[in-house]
Design goal:
This protein has 2 helices and 8 strands. By secondary structure, it is of the alpha+beta class. The chain folds into 2 domains: 42 residues; 112 residues, Beta Barrel (Lipocalin), CATH 2.40.128. An 8-stranded antiparallel sheet has the order 1-2-3-4-5-6-7-8, with no helix packed on it. The radius of gyration is 28 Å and the shape is elongated.
């Protein structure tokens, strides 16, 4: 009986036992890297390094302006009061704001016992390039809080919103 190995094979043409271990190891390594690559591609927020810009806030006449500095968010919300109150614009400053990955949260200052809180995520919109309208969207829950100074109670209205970026304003020459 001739049990001589030839180029990693037994006499009957079957692969040597070490071949299967090596093949299984290579397949496991390739699978691991492929899965890791997909996970990296799906990591939220990694493709959007900065959310600085202006966004529509509840209607086209109101603006949410955000300046991102590292993980801190600054800015304001300009809200036109409309015909029932006056023609003035209230500017609610963002007093607390933070971004962690694709998750963002902020809270505004209080004007006439009213302020806003937002918690949500940033994602790509339908705009094709960075300066286009709706390039970015802030998707989440907006809380409008009104405080009653007499009863010391807050009324909270929760609204699911999508704030779309306004894009860059083109200047005429």
């Amino acid at each position: 009986m001739n049990l001589k190995h030839r180029k990693g094979r037994l006499r009957d043409g079957q692969p040597a036992p070490g071949f299967w271990l090596t093949a299984a190891t290579v397949i496991a390594i390739i699978s691991t890297f492929a899965a890791w690559g997909k996970l990296q591609a799906q990591t939220p927020g990694s493709a959007i390094p900065d959310i600085t810009g202006n966004y529509d806030f509840l209607n086209p006449y109101n603006t949410l302006a955000i300046l991102q500095e590292d993980q801190m968010l600054k800015g304001y919300i300009d809200v036109l009061q409309g015909e029932s109150a006056s023609d003035s614009v209230f500017s609610y400053q963002i007093t607390i704001g933070e971004r962690k990955g694709d998750h963002i949260e902020f809270r505004t200052s209080k004007i006439h016992e009213k302020y806003y809180r937002f918690s949500g995520t940033v994602q790509r919109g339908k705009g094709k390039k960075k300066g286009d309208p709706d390039y970015l969207e802030l998707v989440g829950e907006l809380q409008t809080i009104e405080s009653n100074s007499v009863t010391n109670q807050d009324t909270v209205v929760r609204t699911q919103v999508i704030f779309k970026s306004q894009g860059k304003i083109e200047r005429e020459p």
